[in-house]
Amino acid sequence: MPEVVETLKNNSCLILMSETGSGKTTQVPQALWVEGFAEQGKIFVVENRIAVAVEVAKRVTEEQRK
Predict the structure, then answer these.
(1) What pTM does this model have?
(2) In the predicted model, what is the mean pLDDT of residues 14-28?
(3) Which residue segment(s) compose the domain that 8 sits in?
């Protein structure tokens, strides 16, 4: 995660490719939120299916409430 944060501090975008279940969709956006990236703009997560996007949003919301 430190490499992701550092890369985005020095660049305007980042494309991540890694194994399923590695946290690209759920953990990376939360880490960016904690680092204050949302204060500078928006954090975008792109999904290819609406159902997946809805489920991810629910999961991240649940994790944030803990």
Answers:
(1) 0.77
(2) 90
(3) 2-65
